Amino acid sequence: MIAFVFDQIRAGRINMKKRALGGELFVLLATLCWSMSGFLTKSLSISPILSNALRSLIAVFILLAYNRWRLRFSKIIWLGAFCGLFTTTLYFIALSLTTPANAVVIQYTAPIFVLIFTCVRERRAPTKMHLAVVAAAFAGVAIVFSEGLGGGSLIGNLAALASGISFAGMFFVNRLPGAAPADSLILGFMLCALTGVFYLGELPGMSTLEWGVVLLLGVVQHGLAYVFFSIGIQICPSFNSSLIGMLETVLVPLWVFLVFGEAPSLTAILGSVLIIAAVLANTLYERKRAAAVNQI
Q1: Is 68 exposed, middle or buried (0-12, 13-18, 19+ CB in 10 A)?
Q2: If we measure between CA atoms, which residue out of 275, 259, 232 comes closest to residue 12?
Q3: Burial of 151 per CB tally in 10 Å (0-12, 13-18, 19+)
Q4: What is the pLDDT of residues 133-185, one digit of tens each?
Q5: Residues 145/93, Cβ–Cβ less than 8 Å
Q6: From the DSSP assignment, how many helices (H) and strands (E) are in the chain?
Q7: Cβ distance 214 to 71 under 8 Å?
Q8: How many CB atoms lie within 10 A of CB 201?
């Protein structure tokens, strides 16, 4: 059954390449799945590192099934794997040493680094439009979390920044020649699973509800999310993908509102509107650029 579902996804990927918004749609689906962690993890009493290790272990099997139980190795694939490992590990370190708002906002400097990496590789300057949408989207994230910003340790903030750089690496590396996103993610999740070894003593105390939440996190929030990501990143440019990923900060409070009835503040709504506007502006800009190139 799983193989059949993934065969349909593959067929969709082939067809979607012919459509202008195909890659963006898959990255958006990945972002939607990622955003579920905000309300699901509220039900867990175990260590965040153990939670991440368990869902990573489950995601390994989801991605292996998608990848037809094959796994390749190369320098680029390993580089992508370590980017994934460092993104999650450094993020959890940041959460323990600085405020959650600081960790999220600083991590979402990722599109800035994607833009830098891309411009260096292609030996060109960023366009004014790209600079504008990055500034607008980052300002939106800062506004969403403005009430919790400030404080935290320098080490924690630096860990969040390093997480943002490695997060940018996930988008950038998986677009390089020879990259294999699914293989990189599988290896990265295997490494993430190993980080939970020192917290195995917490397993006997987990309730049935917690096991159910971990299963949902592993299958949907990690597994399916990164299946969608591995498809989308092969079609959608790194910068566009990283910008769409910022919509997670919009979707997290929306999930919390739908599940727990906690309405977002006015500042959070304003910040969310700014992020969405930046993503839409960039999408329309890229569509116009692509159309202009095709007419030449």
Answers
A1: exposed
A2: 232
A3: exposed
A4: 999 999 999 898 887 777 677 888 899 999 999 999 999 999 999 999 999 99
A5: no
A6: 15, 0
A7: no
A8: 9
